[in-house]
Amino acid sequence: MERMSDQPARWTQATVHPDMWADPDTDPRNSEGTAPDGELATLRDYLTNYRLTLRMKCEGLDAEQLARRSVPPSTMSLLGLIRHLAEVERDWRNWITDGDPLPKLYGARDADFDGAVAEQALVDAAYADLAREQAATDAALAAHPDLGERLGEDRIAVRELLVHRIEEYARHCGHADLLRECVDGRVGQ
Question: Where is this region: Disordered (predicted)?
Answer without folding.
Answer: 1-38
